[in-house]
From TrEMBL:
It is found in: Cytoplasm, Cytoskeleton, Flagellum axoneme. GO terms for molecular function: ATP binding; protein-glycine ligase activity, initiating. It catalyses: L-glutamyl-[protein] + glycine + ATP = glycyl-L-glutamyl-[protein] + ADP + phosphate + H(+). This is Tubulin monoglycylase TTLL3. The lineage of its organism: Eukaryota, Metazoa, Chordata, Craniata, Vertebrata. The keyword ATP-binding applies. Pfam families: TTL. It comes from Dryobates pubescens (Downy woodpecker). PANTHER family: TUBULIN MONOGLYCYLASE TTLL3 (PTHR45870:SF2). GO terms for cellular component: axoneme; microtubule cytoskeleton. GO terms for biological process: cilium assembly; cilium movement.
Length: 607
């Protein structure tokens, strides 16, 4: 066995089949072993240095004594050393750091890998002085990129925070129209960085305009609101709007309607529509602006209607004008349908994952209170972003869900994107309701929902206990609901377009490296019309088997990833599993920045 192990190691070194895996990826290890690769393991340092020195002495004496006894002795020492201690440095030729930083992205435990005869342990020690040619880690910060060789394959790129953080996606996706004929507002809920003064003010204006639109929607949806008499009816023409300075509305008791509030909302939305139509550019229209005090009164009256149930006094003419104005706004605002009428926003730390620190709120002052202190150094480091909440999501059994969709990037120049045909759904543990903004009904993260699984009294009986569905189960549900074609005709094409758009908008910012690749996990919500909305993109997506569905799918995506990045190099016609190549652009030549003779030569012109 020892001789066979040494021959296997010799062949692996010759073929450059040495790999290193850091993190809980037992599937990757088994798949590489099956391909003839040898792992250069990260040993656990023993609390007794004598044990480590004993291992080396046994290996040095491999030419002496009985092979079987030596094998058993080495394995005994390996087993003893593995039971204690911390991570040990990889050696002098390291491309990975000795001290792994604590990983906040995933809370996964290393699974036991079958190595009954211990041959992989021994082969690992035989290649401790070799360079790993395939490196799979949890995070790119564990890699010393300056020491990497060109033939070392790594599962990460640098500077991917341009799209793999909430702050980066919010900042860069708005530049998409410069790179492609696409509108990010059609697949990414509008988002603002609160640490930026201009964006914070833009959010305040957006909240106010959304509140005005919400009032128009409520005026059409509430059948019990008061209809005003003929004397209070407004003219039907939108060009006869009353100047803002001449509108006065008063607060009435809670039980009564708020008079003239719809009038103000119509005026605000009419002005906004004129701006969207660019009618303000030539100076044909003059827009009286609401002062800060007027806005405060308007928002407080809006709260009375939304949160306290105050009625709205409007005429039949106003009702018709609300309907016409909303139809005109829908032509210019692709998010009008999904934004609902409660003006709910979601506040997120810009660089955290697993739902940590997220707050849903429908009050402007609460957002400014939670994220308004971003001028402080600590808060500025957190990079809070606020994003419009999807108030009208597609529900299953009255419950909100999102979709984890994998995709793989194997090159950034030319940009090459592979889309995985398999995905899975994550459900909330409680029914969806905008009256209660608790995490149990609005955040689908597994790490969040596992805190509420114990109390399943409000969970729909047809939902699975582990709150996970495969995309095939979802397609069956859609077929039963009469939307059999929605998945392949609307949802998947929309997700592909969103992924490619996010990558193209940040392509120039990411550190491109020819021998790297990276697997990402994108999270999507679907509107009532089945249109996908991109929430975020995650690096190092979890491969923990949290359910029967994820256990099967996570193993498959790791298997197919190796097919694309390893097998396809030797055999371009090999199977890539469920990965589908959805985008590959023409290579862009890198411009020369040095060595050019930038001098203009010529003769002066005579008069």
């Amino acid at each position: 066995q020892l001789r066979r192990a040494k021959l296997h190691v010799k062949r692996a070194i010759k073929e450059k089949k040495i790999f290193t895996v850091q993190g809980p990826y037992p599937v990757i290890r088994r798949l590489l072993w099956a391909r003839g690769w040898v792992e250069r393991k990260l040993h656990r340092a023993s609390s007794q240095p004598q044990q480590q020195r004993g291992i080396q002495k046994k290996l040095q004496k491999e030419e002496v004594g009985d092979g079987a006894k030596q094998w058993e002795a080495v394995l005994d020492l390996h087993s003893e050393a593995a039971r204690c201690g911390k991570q040990q440095p990889l050696g002098t030729t390291e491309t990975l750091h000795a001290q792994w930083p604590p990983q906040e992205e995933e809370e996964e435990q290393e699974q036991c890998i079958e190595d009954l005869d211990g041959k992989h342990d021994l082969m690992s020690h035989l290649v401790q002085d070799q360079v790993p040619y395939f490196i799979w880690t949890n995070h790119c910060s564990t890699i010393n990129w300056q020491l990497l060789r060109q033939d070392q394959v790594v599962n990460h790129y640098t500077r991917v925070d341009a799209f793999a953080t909430k702050d980066g996606l919010c900042r860069n996706l708005r530049n998409l129209p410069w790179f492609a004929q696409a509108d990010p507002d059609s697949f990414f809920p509008r988002c603002y960085r609160l640490r930026d003064v201009d964006e914070r003010q833009a959010f305040i204006e957006d909240f106010r305009l959304t509140a005005a639109r919400s009032l128009l929607k409520m005026a059409l949806q509430r059948p019990g609101d008061t209809l005003a008499g003929p004397a209070q009816q407004r003219p039907k023409s939108s060009k006869q709007l009353v100047p803002m300075s001449q509108i006065h509305y008063s607060m009435t008791p809670t039980a009564g309607p708020v008079s003239s509030l719809v009038e103000v909302a119509l005026q605000i939305c009419g002005q906004h529509l004129a701006i969207l139509r660019h009618q303000d550019i030539d100076g044909d229209l003059t827009f009286p602006r609401m002062t800060g005090t007027n806005w405060d009164h308007f928002i407080q009256d809006y709260y009375r209607v939304v949160h306290e149930g105050a009625g709205l006094a409007l005429s039949r003419a106003q009702t018709e004008q609300c309907r016409t104005l909303l139809q005109c706004l829908a032509e210019h605002l692709p998010q009008l349908g999904m934004e609902g009428d409660h003006n709910v926003w979601i506040l997120k730390p810009g660089a955290k994952s697993r739902g940590r620190g997220i707050v849903c709120t429908d009050r402007l002052e609460e957002v400014l209170r939670l994220g308004g202190c971003c001028t402080a150094p600590l808060a500025q480091a957190n990079r809070w972003v606020v994003q419009k909440y999807l108030e009208r999501p597609l529900l299953i059994f009255g419950t909100k869900f999102d979709v984890r969709q994998w995709f793989l990037v194997t090159d950034w120049n030319p940009l090459t994107v592979w889309f995985y045909r398999e995905s899975y759904l994550r459900f909330c543990s409680r029914p969806f309701s905008l009256r209660c903004l608790e995490h149990s009904g609005h955040l689908c993260n597994v790490s969040i929902q596992k805190q509420f699984r114990a109390a399943q009294s409000q969970q729909h009986p047809q939902l699975p206990p582990d709150l996970i569905w495969s995309c095939h189960q979802f397609q069956s549900y859609l077929a039963q609901a009469g939307q059999a074609g929605a998945w392949h005709e609307v949802m998947v094409p929309g997700m592909k377009a969103a992924v490619v758009g996010a990558l193209r908008s940040t392509q120039h910012l990411v550190g491109s490296r020819k021998s790297s690749f990276e697997l990402y996990g994108a999270d999507f919500l679907f509107g009532e019309d089945c249109q996908p909305w991109l929430l975020e993109i995650n690096t190092s997506p979890t491969m923990a088997p949290s359910s029967a569905v994820t256990s099967r799918l996570c193993a498959r995506v790791q298997r197919d990833t190796l097919r694309v990045v390893i097998d396809r190099k030797n055999d371009p016609a090999c199977s890539t599993g469920a990965f589908e190549l959805i985008y590959k652009e023409a290579a862009v030549p890198t411009p020369l920045s040095m060595g050019l003779k930038l001098m203009v030569e010529g003769r002066s012109l005579r008069k």
